[in-house]
């Protein structure tokens, strides 16, 4: 049991640390980040119940429906809902990159428990592939969702809506494409997945750079550093 739990937790913890430490100007309170991670973990159970009910009560034999509705819509909307109502107006959400940190925390909480449950059902042999694909893809959906929430957070009231819409729609569409590749290309899905994951990592890391570049605290940090160099020693 312990090896499976360790293998299930390790990739999510590593990715969360990676994105947490890429905040160049001010780290978020770890207690709040951990709270969002646990919240992401807890929403696995209602989502699984809804997916089970939908799969057995709404009998639509379609890969598109399964990928975009049963999976992507339920999972990404649930994560978006948690972020919007628990973090979006929180006092600690005071910079663009903060959205990425909290988005990744919720997404990886979800992905970590999902990963543990999958490893219990299918064994440790699948752990490496799970870390490379589902866990990392969830982290990147969280990056993109959080980036656009961060853009919305600091827009005027009249111009928030397009950014809020993108914060849900883009991760939702990317997640749907990911699942559609797996469902539709049973024999050679990896040939499609490699370029898709390459694009997803490129897009996620681009949002990380943009969020840090747009930081509301960047100029303040540079001003403090310049002042320190200019001030004569006491």
UniProtKB/TrEMBL annotation:
UniProt-listed PANTHER family: PROTEASE PRSW
Protein name listed in UniProt: Protease PrsW
Documented EC number(s): 3.4.-.-
Pfam families (UniProt xref): PrsW-protease
GO function terms (MF aspect): peptidase activity
Database matches in InterPro entries: Peptidase_PrsW_arch/bac (IPR023596), PrsW (IPR026898)
Domain of life: Bacteria
Keyword Magnesium annotated: no
Keywords: Cell membrane, Hydrolase, Membrane, Protease, Transmembrane, Transmembrane helix
Example of a GO cellular component annotation carried by this entry: plasma membrane
Family per similarity comment: Belongs to the protease PrsW family.
GO annotation, biological process: proteolysis
Originating organism: Aureibacillus halotolerans
Membrane topology of the entry: Multi-pass membrane protein
Top enzyme category: hydrolase
Function statement: Involved in the degradation of specific anti-sigma factors.
Cellular location(s): Cell membrane
Annotated TM spans: 6-21, 33-52, 64-87, 99-121, 127-149, 161-183, 189-208
Coiled-coil portions: none
């Amino acid at each position: 049991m312990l090896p499976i739990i360790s293998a299930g937790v390790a990739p999510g913890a590593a990715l969360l640390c990676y994105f947490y430490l890429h905040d160049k100007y001010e780290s978020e309170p770890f207690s709040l980040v951990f709270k969002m991670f646990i919240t992401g973990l807890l929403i696995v159970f209602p989502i699984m119940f809804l997916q089970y009910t939908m799969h057995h009560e709404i009998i639509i034999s379609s890969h598109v429906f399964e990928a975009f509705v049963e999976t992507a819509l339920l999972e990404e909307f649930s994560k978006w809902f948690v972020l919007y109502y628990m973090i979006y107006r929180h006092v600690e959400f005071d910079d663009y990159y903060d959205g990425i940190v909290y988005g990744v925390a919720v997404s990886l909480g979800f992905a970590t428990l999902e990963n543990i449950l999958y490893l219990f059902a299918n064994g440790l042999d699948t752990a490496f592939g799970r870390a490379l694909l589902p866990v990392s893809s969830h982290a990147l959906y969280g990056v993109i969702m959080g980036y656009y929430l961060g853009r919305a957070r600091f827009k005027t009231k009249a111009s928030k809506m397009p950014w809020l819409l993108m914060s849900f729609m883009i991760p939702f569409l990317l997640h749907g494409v990911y699942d559609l590749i797996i469902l539709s290309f049973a024999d050679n899905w990896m040939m499609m997945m490699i370029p898709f994951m390459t694009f997803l990592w490129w897009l996620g890391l681009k949002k990380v750079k943009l969020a840090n570049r747009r930081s509301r605290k960047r100029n303040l940090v540079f001003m403090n550093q310049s002042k320190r160099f200019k001030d004569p020693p006491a």
